[in-house]
């Protein structure tokens, strides 16, 4: 089990740690958590619960994910940890030359050009077939109900929706974006807190996906609609790209830290950078025992690890640097030597923002799931396939057009991916799933939450409640408004350029479930959003 003090909470307590015995689902939206609990109480396992919650989140949190998302999962089942990569590739017909011939020096954030093959639907079907218990169509029932009958918007969701509407209204002017406005702003504005929103088109698409076990999405009616819309708008995604897609079972990457082993999904996800940061901190060895040194080392290690990650992580089939070499003790020790008493200034680009949902689920049989899916940058590309409610991701925006960069755009290639699930084990036993969503904040959130649980022995809820920092670029670091002022001053004295941000959403949203030695589940959920834990 995780060695924490359930009563030790050094920060203003925002929520209580939740305990249950038979099952638990933690998500950023209460209705999605309830959808997962519904599966558990219907005789399903944690895999069924996680999938039902993920499917429901496409409806009840479309500001962060949708039917056109990618997904990743770490699943403890049958006494071992399974990794699932359900991210899609770029269209086979796309190339850097074609993009540049359009007069572009960067892949745009919106429209059909950044759209890659959506992998989430395939991931749901694959996980359900291998590890689930309930019929696949059963998992869709709550989501279909929410989509058809409607649901009231929660406060943080409404703020995110309004922010996205303002951005899209200013930037999305072409015909290809009109379906987004018709679907997500049917009254000519974003829906407000407590207001009912529904989408009959999405309900029908969900029914079709559930009944065909995803076949329609990749090789049937929905695939044809996606391909037709792409061609009409001058995009490169074709039905053949969808038909060729298959999710991959992968071996998770892990590193020992303290008495535990921290697991992440391997590239093309950025979880490798989390493990590198933990490894760099380990190589530094014992240092002065002060809060400012704790945070200084954490920030500096993350900067080095994420700089390397953005340079080297891409489609594993084309990576020139292997994960094992980046995690080797010699290399981590070399990187650790760069860390001194003052803030360093690594050379890297400015990380963009992101939009993602993260959820965890566990049952009384020992199954545990760490699951994440995303459209990227909020609603994604701004493209909704007419008549389907399918909002498409814009993951292709992360590709580079520089032919020398490992993550250069190419047809049929997977890009560097920000979304990552995490998992913790001790010895041969699972401790539990954890994750913090939010673009490039995810590596930073994982690092901060894990260190607070392992090094400071905070319980899962206290670790989530703790004020966070976010590296922006160079020596610039943003901190939350309740970050301790005395630590902010000492970090500034060390050369960190701190700024206080009032909006909590930019610091990520996390969920954690841990299994205690007696089998009881202990869960923490994110105080920065409309999150909830459903359990019994």
Overview of this protein structure:
The protein has helices at residues 30-41, 46-60, 96-101, 120-131, 141-149, 155-171, 178-184, 200-211, 215-219, 221-232, 239-243, 271-284, 291-312, 323-326, 329-336, 441-454, 460-465, 485-493; strands at residues 18-20, 23-27, 70-77, 80-86, 151-152, 196-197, 248-250, 253-257, 260-264, 356-363, 368-374, 384-385, 390-391, 422-426, 429-437, 469-473, 476-480, 497-501, 509-515, 521-525, 532-535. The strands form five sheets. It has a seven-stranded antiparallel sheet. A seven-stranded antiparallel sheet has the order 7-4-3-11-10-2-21. It has a three-stranded mixed sheet with strand order 16-17-18. Mean pLDDT is 93; it is low at 347-353. The chain has 536 residues and is α+β, with helices and mostly antiparallel strands. 35% of the residues lie in helices and 19% in strands. Helix 1 runs antiparallel to helix 2 (46-60) and helix 5 (141-149) packs antiparallel against helix 8 (200-211).
């Amino acid at each position: 089990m995780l060695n924490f003090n359930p009563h030790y909470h050094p920060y203003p307590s925002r929520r209580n740690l939740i305990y249950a015995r038979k099952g638990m689902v933690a998500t950023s939206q209460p209705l999605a958590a309830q959808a997962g609990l519904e599966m558990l109480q219907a005789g399903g396992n944690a895999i069924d619960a996680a999938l039902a919650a993920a499917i429901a989140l496409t409806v009840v949190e479309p500001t962060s994910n949708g039917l056109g998302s990618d997904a990743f999962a770490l699943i403890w089942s049958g006494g071992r940890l399974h990794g699932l990569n359900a991210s899609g590739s770029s269209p086979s017909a796309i190339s850097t030359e074609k993009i540049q011939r359009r007069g572009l020096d960067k892949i745009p954030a919106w429209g059909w050009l950044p759209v890659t093959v959506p992998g989430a639907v395939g991931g749901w079907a694959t996980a359900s077939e291998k590890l689930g218990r309930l019929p696949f169509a059963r998992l869709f029932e709550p989501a279909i109900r929410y989509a058809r009958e409607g649901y009231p918007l929660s406060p943080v969701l409404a703020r995110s929706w309004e922010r996205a509407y303002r951005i899209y209204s200013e930037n999305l002017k072409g015909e290809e974006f009109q379906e987004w406005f018709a679907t997500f702003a049917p009254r000519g504005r974003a829906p407000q807190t407590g207001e009912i929103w529904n989408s009959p088109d999405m309900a029908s698409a969900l029914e079709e996906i559930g009944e065909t076990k995803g076949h329609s999405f990749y090789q049937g009616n929905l695939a044809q609609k996606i391909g037709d819309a792409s061609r009409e708008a001058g995009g490169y995604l074709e039905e053949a790209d969808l038909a060729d897609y298959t999710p991959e079972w992968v071996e998770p990457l892990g590193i020992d830290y303290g008495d535990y082993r921290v697991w992440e999904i391997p590239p093309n996800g950025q979880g490798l950078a989390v493990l590198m940061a933990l490894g760099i901190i380990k190589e530094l060895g014992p240092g002065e025992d002060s809060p400012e040194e704790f945070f200084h080392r954490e920030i500096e290690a993350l900067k080095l690890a994420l700089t390397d990650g953005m340079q080297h992580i891409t489609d594993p089939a084309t990576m020139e640097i292997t994960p094992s070499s980046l995690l080797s003790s010699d290399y981590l020790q070399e990187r650790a030597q760069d860390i001194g008493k003052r803030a360093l200034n690594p050379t890297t680009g400015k990380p963009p923002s992101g939009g993602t949902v993260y959820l965890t689920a566990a049952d009384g049989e020992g199954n545990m799931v760490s699951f994440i899916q995303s459209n990227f940058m909020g609603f994604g590309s701004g493209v909704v396939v007419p008549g389907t409610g399918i909002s498409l991701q814009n993951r292709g925006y992360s590709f580079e057009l520089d032919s020398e960069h490992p993550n250069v755009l190419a047809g049929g290639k997977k890009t560097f991916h920000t979304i990552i699930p995490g998992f913790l084990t001790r010895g041969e036993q699972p401790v539990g799933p954890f994750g913090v969503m939010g673009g490039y904040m995810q590596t930073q959130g994982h690092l901060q939450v894990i260190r607070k649980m392992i090094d400071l022995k905070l319980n899962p809820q206290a670790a989530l409640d703790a004020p966070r920092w976010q590296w922006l670029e160079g020596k610039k670091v943003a901190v939350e408004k309740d970050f301790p002022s005395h630590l902010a001053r000492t970090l500034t004295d060390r050369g960190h350029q701190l700024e206080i941000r009032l909006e909590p959403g930019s610091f990520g949203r996390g969920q954690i479930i841990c299994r205690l030695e007696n089998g009881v589940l202990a869960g923490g959920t994110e105080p920065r959003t409309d999150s909830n834990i459903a359990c019994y």
